[in-house]
Specification:
Layout (H helix, E strand, L loop, with lengths): L7 H21 L9 E6 L9 H6 L3 E6 L4 E5 L3 E8 L2 E8 L3 E6 L4 E4 L3 H23 L13
Length: 153
Amino acid sequence: MKKIFIDYGQRINTAILGVIQDILRDLSESKVSSNHCFYITFKTQDSGVKISKNLQKDYPKDMTIVLQNQYWDLNVRKNHFTVTLTFNKKKEILQIPFKSIIKFYDPFVKFSIQLELKDNKIKSQKSLIKKKTKSSEKSRKIITLDDFRKKNK
């Protein structure tokens, strides 16, 4: 049986995204007090994100939306949610995968969370592996003088 390395960060992120999904589902079913206000920041270039070209141009890296009073058609699915919001007096439909969310904030209860994106984690792990590989290559190039000394018997 293959043994795995426990990735606590990934498991915590998955659990938190599940909480966010549940909160948005409750919001879509009008189960949440009107005092709550949700700020959701997501990566606009992630796969599965669907926003208009104008919004992509205005928000090339990430975007924060606010779900409080002026939103329509909030629909929560297994891996993403869709919502209609107004930008410059024009309604826009956004599709946001949960995996693209990087921040979630509810000022009513002072709850804020910043999520670690798996892609960033993979990039940092790859860079660490490259550093280790380079250091091990350097250690292979070290030659000791003992290799050239005559051995006395």
